[in-house]
Description:
With 69 residues, the protein is α+β, with helices and mostly antiparallel strands. The chain is built from two helices and five strands, in the order E-H-E-E-H-E-E. The strands form two sheets. The protein has a three-stranded antiparallel β-sheet with strand order 1-4-5, with helices on one face. The model has no long low-confidence stretch (mean pLDDT 97).
Amino acid sequence: MKVRVDRDLCIGIGNCVAYAPTVFALDEENKAVVLAPASVSDQTLVEAAESCPQNAIIVEDDAGNQIYP
Length: 69
């Protein structure tokens, strides 16, 4: 799976970091950045994305099909 953050939508709540701290971190602008998406299960990636109140986390399968949001 692939995951990316739409930095224009991210407001730095940090739910993604709480769900998957090996995958997400907040940078100096208090915006989420992707670290190591392969470090967690696909289910955890989707749960982290679902926890974002702004839907700023986009999850795609290996073929590039958007899974969430």
